[in-house]
Amino acid sequence: MVRALVLLLAQLAGTPIVSETVETGERQLIDLGTFECRDITRSTVLQRVCYDRARQDLVVAADGAYDRYCGVTADTVERLLGAPSMGQFFNQNIRRKTASSRYACRA
Predict the structure, then answer these.
(1) For 19-48, what is each residue's pLDDT tens digit?
(2) d(CA 72, CA 107)
(3) In angstroms, rounded to a whole number, what is the distance separating the alpha carbons of residues 49 and 104?
(4) b/e string for 52-63 if b means 16 or more Cβ within 10 A?
(5) Of 36, 43, 56, residue with least CA distance to 82
(6) How far apart are CA 19 and CA 37, in angstroms?
(7) Does pTM surpass 0.90?
(8) 3-class SS letters over 17-65
(9) Taking the mean position of all CA atoms in its chain, how far away is CA 107?
């Protein structure tokens, strides 16, 4: 048992750490290595929410596509995650169609 554990740890130590990269609707590749991601199961609109607190970057998988939003405060993300209807909160407060360029990312 101990020998199997030692072998497993040795294999893991030799395995390179690869972070996940996603492509947004704007054809931009985002490395999620610094993001905290949560799979969402209680929303029909949102499938995944990833947030980089230090950069205030939000990456959301909504309706099957990823989009990036910049300058999103941690408070806004907490309100999104705690909203009774996450999809409704997202659509009314964050999504570009309704929030205009409020969370637009500069190139």
Answers:
(1) 799 999 888 899 999 999 999 999 999 999
(2) 16
(3) 17
(4) beeebbbbbbbe
(5) 43
(6) 12
(7) no
(8) CCCCEEEECCCCEEEHHHCEEEECCCCCCEEEEEEECCCCEEEEEECCE
(9) 19
